[in-house]
Amino acid sequence: MSRTLRHDLPIHVILGILAILTFYPFVFMVITSFKTSPQFIHNFWGVTWPPTVANYRDAWHRISIYLANSTLVSGASVVGVLAISSISAFVFARFDFPGRELLFFAILSLLMIPGVLTLVPAFLLIKSFGLLNTYWALILPYISGGQIFAIFILRSFIASLPEELFESARLDGASTLRLFTSIVLPLSKPILVTIAIMNILSTWNDYVWPLVTIPDGRRWTISVGIVSFSSQYGGLENWGPMFAGFVIASIPLIILFLFTMRYFIAGLTSGAIKA
Questions:
Q1: How remote is the C-alpha of 97 from its chain's centroid?
Q2: CB atoms within 10 A of CB 132
Q3: Does residue 63 belong to any structural domain of this protein?
Q4: Residue 155 within a domain
Q5: Any domain includes 146
Q6: Do the Cβ atoms of 85 and 151 come closer than 8 Å?
Q7: What is the distance between the alpha carbons of residues 143 and 257, in angstroms, rounded to a whole number?
Q8: pLDDT (tens digit, 9 = 90+) per residue, 206-223?
């Protein structure tokens, strides 16, 4: 046992150092968010006393509208992605129709196209619809862009479900809609949560598309708004409010992951086993 501990000690030390290097930037951000300008200048790395809560009040006053915009856009987008992709994946997995495989692989081929190549065509399409400077300019492209990966993951999982479940339900008189709502959706809950988390992360952190399509600052999402906020508070005398804004912008994602971590890990495990 002692030999095993001595053998694993270097690995544990290296992993501990990597964990500290990974988490310390966030710890430093939280510590700095409670500092006044003199505290920040005289004690750059350490914890200072008393903490300054006013930084959070100033930051919240500036970025609360951006948080509301991101919540609206990400929430509407993830609902659209889950609703459409789950139905599409169910059709691809459980229905046999001409050209099914060809259509499915055509959808998968879109994964090979870099998003930057579709930036200009997507912008022109949104402009032709008259949706620039509206929330729909973000929500609709996010819904369409999130379908490909979601359909791929859900189709593989639904296709792996035992056919006996569907046959027994059909013998009891279940309709296709009942099969979808009573069998597919409950069993796919971990996968759906995983897709939802990944979709929210991508839309919440997206910067280029909101910057291009939303010129009105009142409709900016948090990714664009926090950059504007940090440019206003970029001096040494304003780093407290700036870091407080960064902390506030991170809290929703942290809370989301904490409450859905169990389903997220289960979804990743299911995808690894069922694929």
A1: 33
A2: 16
A3: yes
A4: yes
A5: yes
A6: yes
A7: 21
A8: 888 998 898 887 888 888
- DSSP letter string, 90-105: HHHHH---TTHHHHHH
Residue 33 lies in a domain: no
Of 184, 218, 185, 178, the closest CA to residue 66 belongs to: 218
User: Whole-angstrom Cα distance, residue 241 to residue 59?
Assistant: 5
| Structural domains of the chain, count | 1
Residue type, 222: I
Cis-peptide into 50, omega within 30 deg: yes
Output the CA–CA distances (angstroms, integers) from residue 153 to 182, 262, 270, in the order listed: 19, 18, 10
Are 141 and 76 within 8 A, CB to CB?
no
Residue count (the chain): 275
- Given its phi and psi angles, is residue 130 left (phi above 0), alpha (psi -120 to 50 degrees) or beta? left
Long-range contacts of 96-99 (CB under 8 A, 24+ apart): none
Give the structural domain span for 172: 52-274
Which CATH number goes with the domain that contains 148?
1.10.3720.10
DSSP string for 205-219: H--HHHHHH---GGG
161: Cβ–Cβ under 8 A, 6 or more apart, which residues?
183, 184, 187
| Span 28-78, pLDDT tens digits | 888 888 877 777 777 777 777 777 778 888 888 888 899 999 999 999 999
Measure the CA–CA gap between 103 and 136, rounded to whole angstroms: 27
Backbone torsion region of residue 173, taken as left when φ is above 0, otherwise alpha when ψ lies between -120 and 50, otherwise beta: left
Can you give the pTM of this predicted structure?
A: 0.81
